[in-house]
Each structure stands twice: as C-alpha cells, then as structure tokens.
Amino acid sequence: MGNAKYIINQTVATIAVTTGIFGLGTVLAWSSPALPDMVNEKNGYFYNISIEQQSWVGSVATLGALASAPVAGFTVERMGRKGTMVLFSFPFILGWLVVGFATNVIMMCIGRFITGFCGGVFSLSAPLYIGESVSSNIRGMLMNSFQLMLVTGILFTYVVGTYVPWKTLTLISAAIPVVFLFFVPFIPESPRYLRKKGQVEKADNALSWLFGPLSAEKPNSEPCDKDENESKVSYKDLLKPDVIKPLAVALTLMVLEQASAFNVVIFYCVDIFAQTGTGLDSYWSSIIVAIVQVLATVFGTFLVDRAGRRVLLIWSEFIMGISFVALGIFFYLKKINDDHIPSGIGWLPLVSVLVFIIAFSIGIGPLSWTIMGEILHPDVKGLCSGIATSFVWFSAFVVTKIYQTLVAAVGIHWSFWIFSSVSLLGTVIVYLYVPETKGKTLEEIQQVFAQSSKGKRLSIVMPVQGFPVNVSNTEDNSIQNRNCTVNGV
C-alpha cells in the first residue's frame, strides 16, 4: 500500500508537468482548425490571406520552440526543472492572448512565436523532470505520458476547433498554462537537481514525497559530494566520448521524429483530407485521426516497459514508411486519372494516415523524448537537452515550412514518398545504432556509454556492437562513478 502511495505521487507529479505538454499539443494543432476558419471569416482581419502568410502562421510556433531550447537548457540548470516551467507559464498565457486579439499577420505570428517558445520550454523541462523523479520500473510508462498529453492536447484542439470560432479556441487554449500553475504547489522540484545544487534537506524532502521515507531508500542514495555539486559545465565537456555518444543518439532520434512529417499531418490534417477529394468530412477525419492517436499512445504507454524501446522504434519507423508509400500511391493514381479517384481506393488516405499515426504514437513519437531523458549524461543534461531540443524544433520548422512549397514543386505524391524514405532509412539507423534502455537505472545506462567509450573510436552515431545491450542488475555491475543515484532511478 505504501509503495502504491508513492507511485501515485510520482504519477501526480508527472501529470502536473505534462499539463504544459498538453498546452504544447494545443499550440501544434491550433493551425489545423483555426487557419481555414480565419481565412474564410468574411470581414475578419485574416480573410483570404495568402498561402505564404498561412504557412508562416502555421510554422512560426516551431521556430519559437527552436529559440526556446538554449534558454531552457540554461534555466533548468539555474532555476530547476519545476522552476523553469513555472517561470514560462506566464508568457505562455500572454502569447495566447496576443494570438486571440491579433489584428494583423505580424501580430498573429508574434503570438504564435511566444506560445511555441513556451511550449518548447516544457518539451525540454518535462522529460528531464520525469526522468529524474520516477522509479526505473515505471519510468518508461510515465515518460510516455509526455506523448499522451501531447496528443490529448491535439485531440482537444481538433474537437473544440470544430465547434467554436478560432478566437474562442485561442482563449480556451490560454487556460491550459493556468491549470499547470494550479498543480505547482503540490509537487516538489527534481530531487536530483536539488542534490546537485547541494540543497540536501530539500532533496530529502522531495525524495520522501516521491519515493517514501529516506530510511527505505537504497544505500546508494546518499547526497552527491560537494565537489560534484559545484562542478562547472562547459562546452568542452561535450567532446567527452561518454557525453557525445548519447547526445549523438538523442539528436539522431529527434531528427528522425520530425523528418517523419508528423507535424505536417498535425498542422495540415484538415487540408490533407480536403485534397483527397474522397468526400470525407475533413474536420471529422482529423478528429478520428486524433482519437486513434490518443488510443495508440495509451497502448504504447503500457507497452514500452514490456516490449522495450528499441523494438518499438524499429517497427515504428518501418510501418510509418510503408504507410506514406501507400498515401503517395493514392495521390499519384488520382493525378494520372485526371484528378479523379479510381474506384475502390477512397478509403486509402484515411487508413494510411491512421496507420502512420499509430506507428508514430507507439514508437518514435514518445520514445525519442523518453530515450533523451534517459541517456544524456547527468553532468551536462541541461546543456545537451538544449541542443537536442534545438534540433527537434529546427527540424519541425523546416519540415512544416517547406511542406506546401514541396507539394507545389514535386507534387503531393512525391512529397509523401520523400517523407516515407526518411522513415525507412530510420529503420536501419535505429537497428544499427540505438541501444536498449528498458529496465536500466540511469546510472546503468551511463555505465553502458562509459564502457563503450573504451572501445571503438567515436563516430557520428554509435553502432550496437559498441553497447553491451543487456547489462544485468548484479553486484558485479554496480556502478562506481560520480553520479548521484536516487532510489534506483
């Protein structure tokens, strides 16, 4: 019963910090229902704005998230994981208000940039907090809640946006950061961060709330020594093999996640279905996609600590690639048939997108963030997380910004074939270079990278052969390093 209580506490803390990720989901999905409503609103400020302006309104949020990464990477080490999220909740609210009361495209883009910036802060801070504050046996499941809350925010936006004007949707979205601020008094700061800063009493209180009385803690949960707490981090530390190798893996996964074109589907879901010409209601099709996404993410949340990260990633990349091949074939057949849909394949676009979303939601979507929170070296986690998050949002901006240009240049069928080739290539990359982290404490994961550093020379990504993938939890493998251990996390 006691253990159940503290699992509940860890779950409550996870729900609290991922409320901001729900808010990020509303940022990402907002343009799908809002843009068509804006441009068709007669006598409105944005009636019939150009395609180029629409693309900026849709994509500038990812540019804001990109800009947030170095700032968040700095503040999570200075103000803490929780402290950073609290700080940026206030401009998050302000950004939505700017969007809601915008009277021109520039003002709209400024508001979208701010909301993307603040959502990007949560995308960096929340995985760090969860990875450092929950037990290893449920870490995968709770880390997957990042993706669950993200897609729930997307579903929420699609459903609400179908029934209310875009301005009302915007003001409703502004309430999400307020919900996070309601949770704040009830959860502690990350105990690892507190110990790193030498705040031992606060760290012990956080540990007691999250894991139970200190007397029940494992012997290796002693505070870090003072020298470690006061160690300074510099960019030179990134060149250490046991730092750059996990960073390279994290960056690779982040690029694969965004280059799969998930954000293209989310940002332009309504438009994609409208272009199919199948007669399916584009708004309801997008809602169906979002519902399936939530259900698939729930399924993946319970699967990740059973099946493991690596096998889910491999199948995710492969199935996403095949689904976009099929979607490209649909648009190609439609094109060569004088823009008429050949009989018997009207179902293909919706099924292809649903299969893509399911594969994304149980694999690369949540697991790129889960693995980032697990493998980055604790001494430079804030700095490395900032770099990795910059990569993911830069990739998101590039993909969403060029999507419509790419469609105009090579056709929508070739656009999806290009995206599919990235996912199929990702299958090979994950198979060769990504290690399994299931069931390992953060210290055991770092030991894996430390051992591999004594082997082959560093390459851009690390081959599987460089990893002792199955590190057993025996006394012979106990880790003697200078990292803190918090209750086996």
From TrEMBL:
Membrane topology: Multi-pass membrane protein
Superkingdom per UniProt: Eukaryota
Principal place of residence: membrane
CDD domains in the record: MFS_GLUT6_8_Class3_like
Transmembrane spans: 12-35, 55-74, 86-107, 113-130, 142-163, 169-187, 247-270, 282-304, 311-333, 345-371, 383-402, 414-434
InterPro entries xref list: MFS_dom (IPR020846), MFS_ERD6/Tret1-like (IPR044775), MFS_sugar_transport-like (IPR005828), MFS_trans_sf (IPR036259), MFS_Trehalose_Transporter (IPR050549), Sugar/inositol_transpt (IPR003663), Sugar_transporter_CS (IPR005829)
Keyword list, A-Z: Membrane, Transmembrane, Transmembrane helix, Transport
Entries under PROSITE patterns matching the protein: MFS, SUGAR_TRANSPORT_1, SUGAR_TRANSPORT_2
Domain Major facilitator superfamily (MFS) profile: 11-438
Gene3D superfamilies: MFS general substrate transporter like domains
UniProt subcellular location: Membrane
Family in the record: Belongs to the major facilitator superfamily. Sugar transporter (TC 2.A.1.1) family.
Protein name: Major facilitator superfamily (MFS) profile domain-containing protein
